[in-house]
Amino acid sequence: MMFPSSALCAEPASVDDLLLGWNRTDDLWVFAYGSLIWRPNFNWLERRLATVRGYHRSLCLWSHDHRGSPDLPGLVFGLDRGGCCRGVAYRIAAAEVPDTFQMLWAREMRRGAYVPRWLSCETDGQAVRGLVFLLNRRCGDYARDLSDDQLLDSVRRAVGQSGRCLDYVVQTEQALRESGIDDGRLGALVRKLVQAAG
């Protein structure tokens, strides 16, 4: 499948822009690194472990609604620059791509915290090109330069419309382990959080 270079370089303004160059008959892939792993909320044909290079999973976005509040924001995951990230690639049937991508756009693009990109996702010795939502470092919700104590305190205390931030972080780490993905840094963080909560 061919995508024009603009789909790789320019920031798409809509789902229609995102899908420029798609022939409407090929299935498309989506890369999941956080809650999409354990709560995708869409139909998929195939699920593979995948690695994206050049970015890493990080609790680096303030959440003032779903996992926190305006007075006590929580933190959610983004893909920040540097390193690599092991996650899950989902193959979406061509017939379901328009509706699924509209849902993903509404879910991930409301606050301008992410930049959608078509990137290479390495799976079992072969690469697929998948939609990846990268951190937008220019957004106002980017949580930069947090100390470990600040991060732990926010995750422990914040509660939002979708529940406790602590539950979100623990569920993500558990979903990674159940998928066979070892994120040592996140595992160490969850151990600290659980010990403090217990």
Automatic annotation (TrEMBL):
One of its GO terms (molecular function) is transferase activity. GO terms for biological process: glutathione catabolic process. Keywords: Lyase, Transferase. The keyword Metal-binding does not apply. GO terms for cellular component: cytoplasm. Its EC number is 4.3.2.7. Coiled coil: none annotated. The keyword Calcium does not apply. PANTHER family: CATION TRANSPORT PROTEIN CHAC-RELATED, GLUTATHIONE-SPECIFIC GAMMA-GLUTAMYLCYCLOTRANSFERASE 2. This is glutathione-specific gamma-glutamylcyclotransferase. It comes from Bordetella genomosp. 12.
